[in-house]
Amino acid sequence: MRHPFPNEIRQLSDEELESRNRVLLLMLFEMLRSTHRTFLDEPQRFGRDLDILFVGLAIWLGDYEGRPMTPHKLAEYLGMPRATTIRKIEELKRRGIAQDGPDNTVLIVPDVLRTEKARERKRYWINAFWTSVDQMLKLDTQPVDLVQ
After folding, report:
1. What is the set of domains in the chain, with CATH numbers?
2. For residue 58, what are the contacts with CB-CB under 8 A and spacing of at least 6?
3. Over residues 58-80, mean pLDDT
4. Contact at 8 Å (CB) between 40 and 52?
């Protein structure tokens, strides 16, 4: 089985689109919730900590890409006011998750990503992703005819 091309996706019925969207939403929500549990470790605050979580994920993405971001770039990337972004960065630093880097950049504290809990979460994300891909492929058992 293969993933449908954009033209095929446009031809899916509303019901087919909704079933695929549900799989993606479940995956996204579970990955965000599990990330929150792993790094912020305050499950009761999940909904109130989403902005902090997104700032942390953006910092982490910059680290992964080898292009750490300044608070200004993070605010721009997230579409968040700079003052809010700076407050969230300070909160991440206070929690021991982020640290100052060179040239006014912000980095994730390396040890945070090397814990067994973090490694297990990364394995979980990969499994959640591939489980979702498998579910999507099962929904695509019937190819869409592209006759024009």
Report:
1. 15-137 (1.10.10.10)
2. 69, 74, 77, 78
3. 92
4. yes
